[in-house]
Every structure is written in structure tokens, then in C-alpha cells.
Write a structure and sequence with these properties.
mainly beta, 5-stranded mixed β-sheet, 9 helices, globular
Length: 989
């Protein structure tokens, strides 16, 4: 049957039992009795959307094609209800973390499984060019994911790459270029003029508190003396540097900065030398086409992005070829191969090096405003330069205890090196044999290899490697091999439709690692290992992980109205002992498509209505160790020529899978010829046999004092809402709006084997609470009488008469943080999160926007806490410190500055919790498409110019706060996400 279909973009549809390609045409050319059903990618195949009973969100390339993103992970933010994204860092080439429908585990990964063109993908998402992707599908419930068995507990993301199309060859070129800047502003901090009096105040109050008999005048004098340099009677100074041209003992008198003080120099900004505007450029070229029997798609791409932090960049070259051929009427073959080369300068990982002296985000934020990064002449105060004309950096000998004395993060960032090179081959091949009209045999093979080479250099002038210098070389190779064999039987008996799938799959992952570390640089300018004297470390190891699975699925529908689906998979994992290695994972689903009933079939209002539900069990074996059931020893602890090994890991030989039992109920709807579409879903995920690091006594001699065991049960449950509406749809003007919203409740329901609680940082895991519930000292506030920090007192001390126990407004409190009460203090999990957006087209103009949001939940803002010290000894201070207590009777939530009591004021507590509410202008694209009649004269089929931006604006509870950086609500001194704005064009021939 030959038909012309109207659609704005080419998609696959199932028409009368045959796959056809939809192409542009007039609506009146479609026969009214023709039924058009959209085909959706599912596990190990495809399916008509109307017969699906699982939760499957599909996102087409047109929804992210124009965005200046390096990783497809960035396009997942806001793409679907139930998907929560922890935003990636500003490091070019980085990818975000993803959670689908809550927290799937506590002790092992919560990341989803990625499948590219039918086989598992474990490499970096930055190795996949987003412009080579045709679509991705987010599978969220057991009915959709259970065929992936032991890897599917955290959801599955199916990535389908672009293929060629039959017909005229197509040539496309696109380019974009633009600026990269910081999206999250810095916390507001006091300036150099405000800083000295504040520190003076803390010293004076502390002196008066500890020696009240001396009197206030004596305390004032003491503070003026020790503020900077000190003297013999009073001891050494606190800040050690005076940037004003007055006597340091006269710098602050009675709490007021000397009015005659003038700055000796003004180069006090530590962020400006490290952070500026980066640059991004991207070029894409693809060629595709095909005959009646063979289609092909080829592409090359180049991306180069320099971050807004100096010495952070990412460069990637990609090339891809995909060919599909109907060799015989009964045989179809296809193959694809991608080659990727990427390299770049790595910034310091702020999460792993949160407090390290080499962390540029921490030390440019917390460095006091009185210190210059540069050395100055002590007499003229001029900036110093060496004989080669290079600026001389200050080594920090005259800095306070909180100001990284002896270090200089700017100089170290410039001198140190951290370079990475990655090489990927991503290959796929398949064969389909049509045995008869109903039976198809197919096989899919995937082989990926990644080689990573990383080199670091620690300079010999300043920092951890001084004075000898150091060099490190890392090399690892990852190989994954997947091979599956599928039998698919599809048949129709009248109005009854059956589809049966039987499959077998092997998976192998191999990781080879080599590391070398040497110290003692011989000659300058060479950071190869041969140029260093002392070998400090040279370990290597190889890990292997294998899986095998057998699986089956049966789908049935009657007139696409009554729907049934069942699947099962038996999986074995080499991570577990042989007697617990095999397990089964399954699902059952059912649906009722009410639109197919007579009472709705002729409705003009309701164009789609389907009820669906499913239940199933999937697993999670993705632990940190590949040998969870084996106790292991660590080699390399030799004493000279005597060999030595250490006990490395204590195993529980009975440890096995985490099992995720999932229930999903949903309704899909469409109104007014699908001008309005959407869904409402409820899910309940119960994770059993949670793998926890169970504490052991120190006397047991076990490394880390823990053992991993299956000890608990946890649930995640919530509602998901999504809606899409074409508000206006005319020939020249369209306006579409879309939104989604999700809720999540997480709770531990069981901890077994005598375990009642597990405390980890700011969280305590116990029955009846979430794994992200805060367990903190209970901050009460500030005593208006004397400005003391107050905590709710622990029951143990409530009836004591110690001087640090008080009653304020009828409440027992303490000024001693060691006597504070610990309690639950809210959760990092929001009450509601999601996204909304709109797209508008007017003639040849188009505008699309996306906003993401979160309501509820709390963030433990340790970055802010570091700026709120009641006695900073050279560290920066937030402008909020200006609201501290200063006068009896004053009502404030900021304690008095006091060098005696500051440890209590600064202590970790519920004081540092802040609302996680945010709204972010995540993305926008404005484009103009030239009219076809204009372009045809030039032999061009399409030309479009566009402006696009990422991370354009955000509103949070506090300037500087980044609530989306971690699922558990903690903050770190990390490379905050970048704002990227580009301009570009697309041209087609």
C-alpha cells in the first residue's frame, strides 16, 4: 500500500503490518480508514506504543539536537518525570549522575544501566557524540526493564543511534561557537575594610570572656596588639599580614578601622587569576542515504571546550559509520563502528579533594580578603617580578592559620599538570534471519574498548611534591563484550496478537590497570617518569567480570484493547559464589485501552485513554568489588627485600543480589486529537537484601572496620505527572507547553542481624527513616543576653548544673556542642521536583525553553559554614556575619564573634541546613529557518541559524548555593556548572 504521511520529522510507524518511513505530505492524502501506530524502542526490540504496559519515556533527537552539550547525560535533566539529575561539574566533558525513581541502593551503585544499539554500554557518556543519537528511551518499571535482569534495578536508558534512510542522499553540516562562564555565583563575602574589625572583635570578645577581671579596655588593647603581629608579652599575631599603611598595632582601635589607613596594594582577588571566560566550538558533518536494499550513515565531529577555570578543557574527535543491508529477502545484516579520541586538562576533583590545598574552588572562596597571591616589595609595596619578567607568587609565610600558610593555589594550579587521553572503539553488528513470515532469528554483538592514559605532574617549587617534584602515570584499558541470540515469533490470529521472545546473552568486562609514581625530578621541563629518581609505587592488576542470562517475553493483545505482558530472565554473576550466583528476575503487566471500547471509539474529546499496571522483580549486582564473596589480601607492602601482604577485604561468602520489587500503576491520556497528552503514574519500589557496610569493632582487625552484607529492606514510592499540550496550532503559529512533576518517599523498613543504625557523616540510617535523613546536633539559636551559641541539650546532661547548661525561654539548652542533642533534622529528598518548558514557532522562527525545579528538602551547606566562623584566622567571611550578636538583648541567629567559644559556634549542626528549593532556567534555543523556495535556487535543502544556551539562570535560597550538586544534600568545594551560550548554523544539501 502506497501512502503519503504528514509529519514534521521522519519517524518509524507501523502501517498495515509493514514498516514505512513517514514523509511530509498533505493531511488530505491519508486515507481515513488507515491506522497509524507509533513504534517505540523497548528491551531487545520494538513495540507499538498503544500496546505497551510498561513505563517508557522516549526523547527524540530534535529535542536536544541544537543544545551545546558534550554528553547525552546533560539532556536527561528535566526530560522525564521520575528522573532526578545531580548536575555535572563545570569540568568540560563531565557527565551528571542520574537516579530513576529514587534511591535504588545504599551501599552500591544507584546509576541506571545504559544500552547502546541493543547491547550494554559501560563507557563514558562523553564518548558518544550527542549528534549521532536518534533517540533515547528511559525505562522506569519492571515491565520495561526486567529483561535486563540483574542490572536493571536502577532503570535502563536505551540509546539508539542514527541510521541512513532510503532515497536521496543527504549531506548535513553544522557548527556552533560561543562562550563558557560560571553559572553559580559566589557567596557574598566581606571586603578588606570590613575584615580586620571583625577579627579584632572576635579576639576582644574572647579575651574578655576568658579574663573578665581585666576589664573591657584591656581586652580592646589586647585585640589591637595580637590582631596582626602580636608582641612578646601577648604572643604571636593572628592574621600576620597588614595590607594597610599604618602601624599594625594601630590598625583597629576600639573596634574601628584606623581612618588614616590606606591600602598598600589592591591585588587581593584570588578568583580572577584562575577564573575567566572559556570558549566552546563544535563542528558536525554527516552523510547518509541508501538504496532499496542498503542504507548508510556516516559522521565526523569535533568538539573543543575550554572551561572558565584555567587549565581545564576537553577536546574530542569522533567518527562513525553505520550500514544496514537487506542482503536477501530472508537475511538482513548491519554493523556500526565509532572511533573516538578525546583529551584534555583535568581540573582538581573538588569532591575527592574537598579540603585539599590544591583545591582552587575552596581556597579562592575561603581565602581572607587581606592576602594577595603575589609577593610585594616590603618598602615600595610594588609587585615583584623575577629576572625573566614573571610575576612572583607569595608563598604564604605571613598568613593566618585558616589561610593555607605555605601554599599558593594559583601558583600550584599553574605549575601542576593533570592530563588525560582517551581512545574508544564502540562497535556493533547484527544479523536477522527471517525463517518464515512469523519467526525471526537474530544475533547482536557488541565490542567496546577504552584506553585511558593520564599523566600528572607535581611541581618542585611549592606544594605537596616540593622540593623534588613528582610524576604519575595511569593507564587502564576497559573491554566489554556482549553477544546475544534472539528468537522472535510474532503472529496474529484474528483479533488476537501474540509476540514471543526467547534469548540468551553473554557479557564479559575486563579491566587492566597500571600505575607508576616517581619522585625527584632531574631536569626541568620533562615530566616523563624517566626524568625522576625515586620509584615510590608501581602497582598493576586485572579484573574480570562475567554474566550469563537466559530470558523470555510474551506479549498479547486483543484488538490493541486488552493487553498482557510477561517476562523472565535467569542471570548468573561472577561477583557472587556459585551456590548463590543464579537468580530469576521477572515481571507481569496488564493494560486496558479504553479508547478501543465502543463507548469511546467515536469520542472527539478523548483521543487516547489507557490504564496499565505491572509488578516485577529486578536485581542489582553492581558492587564496588568484582569479588564480593572472596576475602582478599593486598600486595605491595614489602620491607626492603622482604615481601609483605596485608589483609585487604573481609567477605561474606553468602552475599548475593539486591532484589528490587517494583509495582507500577499508570494512566495514559490524550484529548482533542492528542492536542493534549500526558500520564499519571504511581510506583512502589521495594529493595530487599540491601548491601550495607556493616560496622565491626576495631579489635576485629578488619580493614575499614566494616563487612558488606545483605542486611536490610528499603522502599521508594511516589507519583509522577506529565502533560504536553499544543495550545495553539495553526499553519503559521504553534505554541506548545509541557511539564512534569514527581514525588518521592524513601524509607528503610528493615535492618537485620542486630543492626539498629548506621551513622555516616550527616546521616543516620535506621528503620522508619530515609537514607538521606539528616542526623545532626540540634541548633537552638543565639542567647540574646550574651550572644552565646545554643544547642538543645542532650538528655544525659539535661538535669546537670554545669555552667554551660541554661534555660532560655523555658527550654533547656547548652553552649557546649559536645553536650548537644542529636536528632533527625529533615531530609535531602525534595517534596516535588520536575521541569516545565515551552516551544513557540512563528513562520520560520522557533523558540524553545526548559526550566527545572525542586520544592522541599534541605541542603547541608558546609561551604557556607566555612564562611561563618566566629573566629576566622585568615579565612574569608560571609557578609551575613555582619548581622552577628553585638549588644545584650539583640535578637539574631548569628552568635557573637568570640575566639574562646568559636568551636561551638562553628560545630556541625542543624544550623547549616538550608532549603533546597530552586528553579533553574536550564536551556533555551532561538532559531530561524530560511524558506525552502529561497534555498532551492542555491541547491540547498535547508539552512537554519540559531542561538542556544545552557544553565542560564537559577534562583536558590542563598546566593552561592548549589542544591542540585548531590542527591544526599551535601555541598562540596567543587567546579560549579558552566553557563554556555553559543551561536551557530545548520545547513543541508
Amino acid at each position: 500500500m502506497k501512502m503519503k504521511l504528514i509529519l514534521s520529522t521522519a519517524v518509524l510507524f507501523f502501517v498495515g503490518g509493514h514498516m514505512v518511513e513517514a514523509q511530509k505530505a498533505k493531511r488530505d492524502t491519508i486515507p481515513q480508514d488507515t491506522k497509524i501506530d507509533e513504534i517505540v524502542v523497548v528491551a531487545y526490540g520494538s513495540q507499538k506504543r498503544e500496546t505497551m504496559v510498561g513505563s517508557n519515556t522516549e526523547v527524540k533527537a530534535k529535542q536536544f539536537a541544537d543544545r551545546p552539550i558534550t554528553s547525552i547525560g546533560q539532556a536527561l535533566d528535566g526530560a522525564s518525570a521520575g528522573v532526578k539529575v545531580s548536575t555535572g561539574t563545570g569540568q568540560p566533558g563531565s557527565s551528571p549522575s542520574i537516579q530513576i525513581r529514587g534511591i535504588g541502593s545504599y551501599g552500591i551503585t544507584t546509576n541506571p544501566l545504559y544500552v547502546v544499539d541493543g547491547t550494554v554500554y559501560t563507557g563514558s557518556l562523553a564518548a558518544i557524540n550527542p549528534n549521532d543519537i536518534a533517540s533515547y528511551n528511559i525505562l522506569k518499571d519492571a515491565a520495561s526493564t526486567s529483561l535486563y535482569g540483574s542490572a536493571a534495578a536502577n532503570g535502563v536508558i536505551l540509546i539508539t543511534t542514527k541510521s541512513g534512510r532510503k532515497g536521496k542522499d543527504s549531506f548535513n553540516f553544522s557548527m556552533s561557537t560561543g562562550a563558557v562562564g560560571r553559572s553559580t555565583p559566589e557567596y557574598d563575602r566581606v571586603d578588606v575594610y570590613q575584615y580586620y574589625p571583625l577579627i579584632w572583635e572576635a579576639i576582644r570578645n574572647g579575651r574578655f570572656t576568658s579574663n573578665p577581671g581585666l576589664g573591657l579596655a584591656a581586652a580592646n588593647n589586647y585585640a589591637s596588639i595580637v590582631l596582626v603581629t602580636g608582641n612578646i608579652p601577648f604572643g604571636s599575631g593572628v592574621l600576620k599580614t597588614n595590607v594597610f599603611d599604618v602601624d599594625p598595632h594601630q590598625l583597629v582601635i576600639d573596634g574601628v578601622l584606623n581612618p588614616n589607613a590606606k591600602l598598600k596594594y589592591t591585588d587581593l582577588d584570588w578568583q580572577k587569576p584562575l577564573m575567566n571566560t572559556g570558549f566552546r566550538q563544535n563542528y558536525e558533518l554527516n552523510y547518509s542515504g541508501g538504496s532499496n536494499s542498503t542504507t548508510y550513515f556516516s559522521s565526523v565531529g569535533y568538539t573543543n571546550e575550554t572551561g572558565y577555570l584555567i587549565k581545564s578543557d576537553f577536546e574530542r574527535f569522533t567518527a562513525r559509520l553505520k550500514v544496514d543491508s537487506q542482503v536477501k529477502s530472508w537475511l538482513k545484516l548491519g554493523t556500526s563502528i565509532s572511533g573516538v579520541s578525546s583529551n584534555g586538562n583535568n581540573s582538581v576533583d573538588g569532591v575527592d579533594n574537598n579540603s585539599a590545598y590544591i583545591n582552587p574552588y575552596r581556597w579562592t572562596r575561603t581565602m581572607g580578603p587581606i592576602y594577595s597571591p603575589y609577593a610585594h616589595d616590603p618598602n615600595t609595596f610594588a609587585t615583584l617580578y623575577d629576572n625573566d619578567g614573571n610575576i612572583v607568587y607569595d608563598a604564604g609565610s605571613a598568613r593566618g592559620a585558616d589561610a593555607a600558610a605555605g601554599r599558593n593555589v594559583i601558583q600550584e594550579t599553574l605549575l601542576n599538570k593533570d592530563l588525560s587521553k582517551n581512545y574508544y572503539i564502540i562497535s556493533r553488528a547484527y544479523a536477522e534471519i527471517k525463517v518464515d513470515p512469523y519467526l525471526t532469528l537474530s544475533t547482536n554483538v557488541g565490542y567496546d574498548i577504552r584506553n585511558n592514559r593520564r599523566s600528572t605532574y607535581g611541581n618542585k617549587i611549592i606544594g605537596d611534591a616540593a622540593p623534588g617534584g613528582s610524576a604519575e602515570k595511569y593507564s587502564f584499558t576497559e573491554q566489554t563484550f556482549t553477544w546475544n541470540q534472539l528468537l522472535n515469533y510474532k503472529r496474529k490470529f484474528g483479533d488476537h496478537n501474540f509476540e514471543f521472545l526467547l534469548g540468551h546473552e553473554n557479557y564479559k568486562f575486563m579491566y587492566e590497570y597500571l600505575y607508576g609514581y616517581k619522585k625527584g625530578q632531574i631536569v626541568d621541563g620533562n615530566d616523563e617518569l624517566v626524568n625522576f629518581v625515586t620509584l615510590s609505587s608501581l602497582p598493576s592488576y586485572t579484573d574480570t567480570y562475567t554474566k550469563e542470562g537466559v530470558f523470555s517475553r510474551l506479549n498479547y493483545d486483543y484488538k490493541s484493547k486488552y493487553l498482557l505482558s510477561g517476562s523472565i530472565r535467569w542471570d548468573a554473576s561472577s561477583r557472587f559464589a556459585k551456590d548463590v550466583r543464579w537468580s530469576s528476575f521477572w515481571s507481569l503487566g496488564a493494560g486496558w485501552r479504553l479508547k478501543g471500547e465502543e463507548f469511546l471509539s467515536n469520542s472527539n474529546l478523548i483521543s487516547e485513554l489507557k490504564l496499565r499496571g505491572s509488578y516485577g522483580e529486578v536485581g542489582n549486582d553492581r558492587t564496588d568489588s568484582y569479588y564480593m564473596y572472596k576475602s582478599t589480601y593486598t600486595l605491595g607492602y614489602n620491607n626492603a627485600q622482604e615481601p609483605g601482604i596485608l589483609f585487604g577485604f573481609l567477605a561474606d561468602p553468602t552475599i548475593t543480589w539486591e532484589t528490587n520489587k517494583q509495582t507500577d500503576v499508570g494512566i495514559d491520556f490524550g484529548f482533542l486529537n492528542n492536542r493534549i497528552t500526558g500520564s499519571v503514574e504511581y510506583y512502589n519500589r521495594v529493595t530487599e537484601d540491601l548491601i550495607f557496610p556493616v560496622p565491626l569493632p576495631v579489635s576485629s582487625g578488619v580493614p575499614g572496620n566494616t563487612i558488606s552484607r545483605n542486611v536490610g529492606t528499603m522502599y521508594n514510592r511516589g507519583f509522577e505527572f506529565s502533560i504536553n499540550a499544543d495550545v495553539i496550532k495553526t499553519q503559521n503559529f504553534t505554541w506548545n507547553i509541557n511539564a512534569n512533576a514527581s514525588t518521592l518517599k524513601n524509607q528503610i523498613t528493615e535492618l537485620s542481624k542486630g543492626i539498629t543504625e548506621i551513622i555516616n557523616g550527616t546521616k543516620k540510617v535506621s528503620v522508619g527513616h530515609s537514607v538521606y535523613d539528616y542526623w545532626l546536633r540540634q541548633w537552638y539559636g543565639v542567647d540574646p543576653a550574651d550572644g552565646s551559641p545554643l544547642f538543645l541539650v542532650a538528655d544525659t546532661y539535661a538535669n546537670t548544673t554545669a555552667t554551660d547548661i541554661r534555660t532560655v525561654n523555658g527550654t533547656k539548652v547548652t553552649t557546649n556542642f559536645n553536650k548537644a542533642k542529636y536528632d533527625y533534622s529533615g531530609s535531602a529528598i525534595p517534596d516535588l521536583f520536575g521541569s516545565f518548558g515551552t516551544s513557540i514557532t512563528y513562520k520560520q522562527w522557533s523558540l524553545s525553553t526548559l526550566f527545572t525545579y525542586q520544592l522541599g528538602g534541605k541542603t547541608y551547606d558546609s561551604n557556607y559554614a566555612a564562611l561563618m566562623s566566629s573566629f576566622s584566622q585568615g579565612g574569608a567571611l560571609s557578609t551575613d556575619i555582619l548581622d552577628r550578636w553585638t549588644t545584650p538583648g539583640q535578637i539574631t541567629d548569628i552568635p557573637a564573634l568570640n575566639s574562646t567559644t568559636y568551636t561551638s559556634s562553628n560545630a556541625a549542626s542543624s544550623r547549616w541546613l538550608v532549603s533546597s528549593d530552586f528553579i533553574t532556567f536550564r536551556q533555551a534555543t532561538l532559531s530561524y529557518s530560511f524558506a525552502p523556495e529561497t534555498l532551492s535556487q542555491l541547491g540547498v535543502s535547508g539552512l537554519r541559524i540559531l542561538v542556544s544556551g545552557e544553565n542560564l539562570w537559577s534562583k536558590t535560597a542563598r546566593k552561592g548555593l548549589e542544591p542540585a550538586q548531590a542527591f544526599n544534600g551535601t555541598a562540596s568545594n567543587r567546579y560549579t556548572p558552566a553557563r554556555i551560550v553559543t551561536i551557530g548554523f545548520n545547513v543541508s544539501f
